[in-house]
Amino acid sequence: MTTLTIGFILIAVLIGLVLVGMQIAYALFAVAFVGIWIIRDNVDLAFKMLELTAYSGIADYLFATIPLFVLMGLLVSVSNVGRDTFEVAEDLLRRMVCGLGIATVAANTIFAAVTGVSIASAAVFTRVAVPEMTRHGYRPAFSAGTVAGSSVLGMLIPPSLLLIIYGVLAEVSIGGMFIAGIVPGIMLAGGFIVMLIGLTIAFPSFVLTDPDASRTRRLDVSAQKMPLGTMAAKIFPILALVVLVLGGLYSGYFTPTEAGGIGAFGALIVAISRRSLDRHKLWDVMKQTGVISVSILLLLIAASFYSRMLSIAGLPNAIEGLVQGSGFGPFGFLFFYASIILLMGMILDSTSILLIMVPIAAPIAQGMGLDLSHFGIITVLAVEIGLLTPPFGISVFTVHNTLNDPNVSVEQIFAATMPFVGVMLVVLILVAIFPITSTLFL
Length: 442
Hints:
By secondary structure, the protein is mainly α. It has one domain (3-439). Helices cover 78% and strands 0% of the residues. It is globular. The two termini are 45 Å apart. The chain crosses the membrane at residues 6-39, 60-82, 102-130, 142-169, 175-208, 235-253, 259-277, 289-307, 372-393, 413-436. The complex comprises the extracytoplasmic solute receptor protein and the two transmembrane proteins. Pfam families: DctM (PF06808).
């Protein structure tokens, strides 16, 4: 049996282990260890490589980015900034067609710029936006679907944990990945808004329980407007954080790690100034930051060990040879790769997909002349779609569990997210065809 055959078998075993419930980190460690042992017939070498990977895998200043951005996102979440952002967006946009749906997308877009985690956005806006949309005549399932669909913006709009993980796995600049995500993130948010307006005009009964009554309510100019001072007080903290972190990062004044530190400190000031952070909440935030960060860093160590096993097996070079020999050009490879990611998104979580696929695919993409930042945005977009597709659809299940409404089934929420999936597929195709969308500012 050749090392290439062994490599393919090990990848299949890895996916099987994840599907039966083994945690991805342990599955990566086990498959990589056994793979090195079998391929080189040397168990001592497997232990030695495990030791070297564990020691050097995350021994870099850059990896401090992860706990700092996690801490910033958690501090922002406990400060009720998401609720205030939605209230301001609601006040400004409620007279538009599907105004509250657009407000949800707008609030998610701004919130994503300081959290970087889709699940956080889904949980926050389920509590904030869904009751308000339902009260104004939107169908509960559509309201929940809008929150789930727009929550994926947190994975693309920087700072994003998925972009950080991809940058580490593909060995590309994390700051560059953040910059590459700007235009596709705006395209995705804009596409959602256009889709919501078009859907409300073309199929009002899909969006609203009583379209005529909702239109009358929307055009009611007597509704109480939020005072300008109140609006400014609600929106200023999150906008200040966005300008501080992303402005410093994109101007080159901060490195990604420094931007994370500044952002975490700014979020702490916001939480304290809003009196939303007592001693117990601070302890909970610090514990959650530790748990999430250690989990991600352990995954990255496991992924590094897995990558070494793939290199020993010669898998990336062999697959690259097969792809080029099959006549696939860069676009053919991107189509094939994105299709695999979309299929895996139906059964695996986003981090697992990145950890399994990027170590294999990134060297191939680079060998075919593709820009790895552009390739990363395509990867993250395809992975994001998996957050909304059954049967896994973790964003949908997060919204369903947070909502806890027996009248809204998970199947109804999945149906309501399908227009968002359509927009994401269109943006994915546009980004793949026009690399300038992700390399414009690089």
